[in-house]
Amino acid sequence: MIDLKKIPTPDQIKRLPKALLHDHLDGGLRPQTIIDIANDIGYNALPTQNAQELATWFRESCDSGSLVRYLETFSHTIAVMQRREDIVRVARECVVDLANDGVVYAEVRGAPELFTEKGLSLSEIVEATLEGYRLGEAEAKSQGKTIRVVSLLCGMRQNARSQEIAELVVKYRDRGVAGFDIAGPEDGFPPSDQLATFEYLRQENAHFTIHAGEAYGLPSIWEAIQLCGAERLGHGVHIMDDIDLSGPIAKLGRLASYIRDRRVPLELCPTSNLQTGAAKSIKEHPIGKLGKLRFRITVNTDNRLMSQTSMTNEMQQLVDAFEWTFQDLQRVTINALKSAFIPFEERLAIIEEVIKPRFSAISAE
C-alpha cells in the first residue's frame, strides 16, 4: 500500500530519486583525485597526502562560520582543475558520484574564468566540462543508473567577466549549458553590479539564477529579484528576515510575500548554510518553517567536498530534524524539477516517469 505520509528509513532515502539544482563542480572533487592531480602537476600546497585526512581538513576549515574563509578552501580545488584532462576527469567523477547517490537530474555549476591559469580558453573549459558530464552519464548508465546533468556557468561577482560568461551560456545552450549564475562574495558586490549582463540574458531568453541571501540580507534578495529578474535564488535563506514569527500566525513582509506568491524557487543548502553561519543547527534552519509556509523550497548540496555531504545526507538530516515524510521529500524533489532550466516536456517526463513511480514503489515497501 502506498503511504507517502510515513517517514522513510535511511535505506529508502538512499534509494529515492533526487533532483539537484545547486552544486558546484569545484566544490565536489574526490579527495583522492585532488591528491592524484596535485602530485602529477607538482602542486605542493595540500595540507596532507592522505585522502581521508584531506576530506576532514576541508570540512573542518569550512566549519568556521565565515563565508570568506569557506571560499578560501577553493584555492586547492581550483589549482588541480587547470588542465583540460583534469576538468574532464572531475566532471565525469561528479556525475558518477551523484548517480551513485540516487540523483537523476542535476544542474552543476562552475566558473570557467577560474580555470584559465594554464592557458585554457573559456570555450575550451566549457567543452571539457560538458565532455566530462557526457562520459559520466555513460559510465553511470553502464552501471544501471540513469542521470541527466546540465551545466550552469558562473560569473564571479568580484571580477569583470560576467558578460563573457553570459555569452558562453547563449553559445552553448543547445549543447548542455542550461543557464547562468553569479557567485562569490555577496557583501560589497551586489547583483545590480551585473545588471547589464542580466538584461542581455533576458533579451536572449536565457535562464539564470543568482546567489543571494546567503551571507547578506534582504537588499541582496530584493536586487536579485526586482532589479535583475532572477528566476531562482541561490540559497535565499535570509528571506526569513522578512518573516515575523513572534505571534501565533506568521506575518510575511512584502518581499517574502512576493517571493512566495510568485513561487520563486529557493535553492537551499542546509549543511552549507550552517558552515557559513546562516543557521546554527539543522533544527533551526529556516527550511523547516519555509516548507510549512509553502515557499517553493528545494534541497541541495552546494559543495559536497567542503560539507562532506550528499543529497542522501541532506535529506536524512531533514527527516531527523523535522520528521519529514515521503510526501515532504517528494514535494521538494518535484519543486526542483518544476524549477529546472531544461524544457518543460523534459521536466515533466522526469517527474511522471521517474520521480512519482519510484517514490510510490519505495514508500509501498
TrEMBL record:
Gene Ontology CC: one annotated term: cytosol
Domain Adenosine deaminase, first and last residues per copy: 17-356
Catalyzed chemical reaction(s): 2'-deoxyadenosine + H2O + H(+) = 2'-deoxyinosine + NH4(+); adenosine + H2O + H(+) = inosine + NH4(+)
GO molecular-function term, one example from the UniProt record: adenosine deaminase activity
EC number(s) from the headed UniProt entry: 3.5.4.4
UniProt cofactor(s): Zn(2+)
Gene3D superfamilies found in the cross-reference section: Metal-dependent hydrolases
Keywords: Hydrolase, Metal-binding, Nucleotide metabolism, Zinc
Gene Ontology BP annotations: adenosine catabolic process; hypoxanthine salvage; inosine biosynthetic process; nucleotide metabolic process; purine ribonucleoside monophosphate biosynthetic process
Family from the record: Belongs to the metallo-dependent hydrolases superfamily. Adenosine and AMP deaminases family.
NCBIfam families: aden_deam (TIGR01430), PRK09358.1-2 (NF006847)
Protein's name in the database: adenosine deaminase
